[in-house]
Design goal:
about 75% helix, Sodium/glucose cotransporter
């Protein structure tokens, strides 16, 4: 064991406390509306905190400092796109979601294109969310392996089991309020780590700026050189970040479910915009921590274990923070992991129950039976996520964003087709979705595919462009097929 008994006690106390806190919401879960939308009674500030906590994940805390340690502050260009996307979502998407009693984003697609397209988009969401969350759960295993000097499997199993337990019991209400607790904990823990790291650097902030400036690029944020192969230039960052968050917050049930849980459309918009401010500040914080770790490493023997920069920040926490504070910061990293996992579990369960309920062939269940079934669907998805968390994913931030970027373009293209084109048809939507996914899989695996034909590719399209490209291909294909093949638009939305 690499951490002290006091630190271990703090981590265990947190895990037990947040699980018991989430379980106390069980008695209020009497209907699907309560279990999946918290009866649409959550205040905007709690929803904003829940959005931030879910959007953050362990990937942000451990991988973002690693990006700045190895590079610079250029990732902030992507985060700027996150802010642009939120404004567009408030103007275009949210008004449509609040026109009906929707539980999931894909019910909007059903209203526009019918049940087949709804099932297709919901299936894409489930696969995407399961894989992406598997990466996030894997990230916590890296933290624990550094902290305890043990393997990753046991830590993944324990964290997944505890998250399943309180999500199973408390539903969306438990998810929202435990997210708030976890948000406060991880922001507080990160702030503590920031100031203690700054204190340990000889010369303080002056030394940070001197060494970073001497490197020639560590403090660089903007790169205005246009490139399709470089991930972190201004154009790829802002445009790519905008498309990414339009997809993640506008078509991914994990985020849409939180926005639908607001009391009204206005509260939903305020929550989304407020979350953007916090997201920008916290990404800036973690990137600056990465630069500070770079400077700190010049004065100490701090090196990434095994050359894995994802392990650098946990390594600093374990080796250089005082007993007690080290446990608090580690607990905050667990908080982020559990927050993200609980939101994914509840959204996967809601999509399973709502979007595929038509497969019951007309069978009607009472509210209590539906809630009971939803709980066991939550358990099933928890086992799936835990298994995926045991796989090896490489650099977790890039892996997680790449997985989502391959499929998000297809989802966003379908939603924009539903909103923008009155003449779009279900057939066009399905062909567009299939084409968009096929193209993006080809883009992702371009190098090995080219190698089969003896072609060597030195550069491929950067992941920051994936969602934009996938969206354009899906939308354009769907629009053309709808015009050529015709057919009914199949909804009141198109009238």
């Amino acid at each position: 064991m690499r951490i002290s008994g006091l630190d271990l006690g703090i981590v265990l106390a947190y895990l037990a406390g947040v699980t018991l806190f989430g379980m106390r919401f069980r008695r209020k879960q009497t209907s699907l509306r309560e279990y999946f939308l918290s009866s649409r009674a959550a205040p905007w500030w709690a929803l904003a905190g829940s959005v931030v906590a879910t959007e953050t994940s362990t990937l942000t805390i451990i991988s973002t400092p690693g990006l700045a340690y190895a590079g610079n502050l250029g990732f902030l260009q992507v985060v700027m796109g996150y802010l642009v996307a939120r404004v567009i979502l408030c103007l275009v998407f949210l008004p449509r979601y609040f026109r009906g009693e929707f539980y999931t984003a894909y019910q909007f697609i059903e209203k526009r294109f019918g049940p087949k397209v709804k099932s297709a988009t919901a299936t894409v969401f489930m696969i995407t969310r399961a894989l992406a969350e598997g990466v996030r759960i894997n990230a916590i295993g890296k933290v624990v392996s550094v902290a305890l000097g043990t393997g990753e499997s046991a830590s993944v199993a324990i964290m997944t089991a505890l998250t399943i337990l309180y999500t199973f019991e408390g539903g969306m209400r438990a998810v929202i309020w435990t997210d708030m607790v976890q948000l406060i904990l991880y922001l507080g823990g990160s702030a503590i780590a920031f100031f203690l790291l700054l204190h340990k650097i000889p010369g303080g902030w002056g030394e940070v700026t001197r060494v970073a400036a001497a490197s020639g690029h560590k403090l660089r944020v903007f790169n205005f050189r246009f490139s399709l192969t470089h991930s972190y230039n201004f154009w790829a960052g802002v445009i790519g970040g905008t498309f990414l968050v339009m997809a993640s917050h506008g078509t991914d049930q994990t985020m849409v479910q939180r926005l639908l849980a607001a009391r009204n459309e206005r509260d939903s918009k305020v929550a989304l915009l407020a979350s953007g401010v916090v997201i920008f500040v916290q990404f800036a914080l973690f990137l600056v921590i990465g630069v500070m770790l770079y400077v700190f490493a010049r004065h100490t023997m701090l090196i990434p274990p095994g050359g894995d920069t994802d392990r650098l920040f946990p390594e600093f926490i374990v080796r250089f923070l005082p007993d007690g504070l080290s446990g608090l910061v580690l607990a905050s990293i667990f908080a982020v992991a559990m927050s993200s996992a609980s939101g994914s579990l509840n959204s996967l369960a809601s999509s399973t129950m709502v979007d595929f309920q038509h497969l019951r062939r007309g069978k009607t269940l009472d509210d209590q039976s539906l809630v009971k079934t939803s709980r066991w669907v939550t358990v099933a998805w928890g086992l799936v996520l835990g298994a995926l968390g045991l796989l090896h994913w490489g650099v977790v931030l890039v892996a997680g964003l790449t997985i989502a970027s391959i499929t998000y373009g297809g989802l966003l293209g379908i939603f924009l087709l539903a909103i923008v084109s009155r003449r779009a048809t279900p057939r066009g939507a399905l062909v567009g979705l299939a084409t968009g996914l096929a193209v993006m899989i080809g883009v992702q695996y371009a190098k090995p595919l080219a190698g089969l034909f003896g072609i060597q590719l030195h550069h491929t399209i950067a992941w920051t462009w994936y969602v934009a490209l996938g969206t354009i291909v899906t939308f354009t294909t769907g629009w053309v097929v709808s015009r050529v093949w015709g057919g009914p638009a199949n909804s009141a939305e198109a009238q």
